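re the bet — no i am not wrong, look at it urself. input seq straight from the record:
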Amino acid sequence: MVEVIQKIGEFMNLTENQISEFNSYYNKACTLQKGIILIDGYRPKNLGFFEKMRAKKAIYNFEKALEIYPESWQTLFFIGKIYQRFRDYEKSLNFIELSMKYETQNHVLPQEASLVCMHLNQIAKAIEYSKLSININPENVALLGNHAMNLLVAEFDVEAKDIIEKAILLHPQDKINRNIKQKIENVILKKEKRPKFNDAIQ
């Protein structure tokens, strides 16, 4: 992390003191948010009182870091993830989208943006971001499964079936994607109701 920030500091003409200060706020925030931010398909639970206090302190320290280096995509992303745990999905999406302006090659960012969009019932944008995550990492079967579910919710059944079959071809034993494939087929055959937004984010 220090080496990355030092390179950023050279680019942004930050002083050694500013770099040190940024690292101090950033590292403190990361310690505070430990166990609060979970990535890759967690089942969100309500935060307890002390977790909320730590989360708010983490946001404060991340924001202080941003005052020094506003283009830190990691900082923006983590603030977005904390707001996601607070179920403030509009703020969450805003920060995650900001992080995506500065980091375009990390599939986790659009993947998480897609999840937040599902919470906001913004299905078109959710599909846009889940597709972007696949463009970045085309052989990630979890991303393919997420995208297929988004497509199924939006009634793009043929596209959903094509995507999940690609995922199964890449990893035939993946139980989650095999279940998604069965669900897609059942919906097409009218053996099962089409999942709604809330079903897709469980």
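see?? Residues 80 and 201 are 17 Å apart (CA to CA). told u. also The longest helix spans residues 49-68. so pay up
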